[in-house]
User: Which sequence fits this backbone?
């Protein structure tokens, strides 16, 4: 996509009441989301990021695990949705919007669960399988590390 066209789209979103704009041209997809600050965040990716849970690794220590209903017991690795990258965890598509999922929600494979912002790119994290959200392990706006558990899905 032409950079001048991209700049024009960013300016249009910044000056309007639009909170989010997504445009697909051929194989290119651009998503512009107006942030709380007067600048716009641009996400350009050929396809949404899908989380695949590796079959290897021991249960990771989760902050606040003492308050968890699973405290004292390990959560099976196949029940965890983990961060595919380092970034900032957001439960909703924009500030003030309804979260993607809540505890107790049924989700289908490929459904967006959250956003991890990395280097000003917003990456939707999708469920790798169908199930029910049993626990959300990270608070909104908190930094996450690669491989850090985000959700317990059963």
Assistant:
């Amino acid at each position: 996509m032409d950079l001048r066209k991209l700049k024009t789209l960013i300016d249009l979103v910044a000056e309007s009441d639009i909170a989010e704009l997504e445009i697909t041209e051929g194989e290119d997809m651009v998503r512009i989301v107006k942030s709380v600050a007067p600048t716009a965040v641009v996400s350009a990716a050929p396809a949404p990021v899908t989380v695949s849970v590796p079959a290897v690794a021991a249960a990771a220590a989760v902050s606040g695990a003492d308050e968890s209903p699973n405290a004292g017991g390990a959560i099976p690795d196949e029940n965890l949705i983990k961060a595919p990258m380092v970034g900032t965890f957001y439960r909703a598509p924009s500030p003030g919007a309804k979260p993607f999922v809540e505890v107790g929600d049924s989700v289908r494979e490929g459904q967006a669960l959250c956003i991890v912002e990395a280097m000003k790119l917003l990456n939707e994290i999708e469920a790798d399988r169908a199930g029910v959200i049993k626990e959300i392990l990270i608070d909104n706006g908190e930094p996450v590390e690669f491989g850090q558990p985000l959700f317990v899905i059963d």
In short: The radius of gyration is 17 Å.
